[in-house]
Amino acid sequence: MLLTIIGSIIIGAVLMLLVQMWLAQKWFFALPQLEPPTKNQYDNFKLPEALHIEGSTEDERRNPERLLCLNLIFQFLFQETKDTKQFRK
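Structure (tokenized):
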């Protein structure tokens, strides 16, 4: 009697695992295969005109209110994170 109960539990567990594996495999292979995109999904980076340094005069470059260093750092961080899922939320 005890052997029958233990045997049926083992057979039931094995059958349940086989059914789960079969369903998971069927679901994973049923997903559509996507082709790689034909065009570049990211735009080429271009520094905004307001942050250009080469056209500035010497006085404008030394102006402490301009905070050019911070502007460039934030511009870089934005360009690196703008296409991430966390940033889009």
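The chain has four helices and no strands. Helices lie at 2-29, 58-62, 68-81, 85-88.
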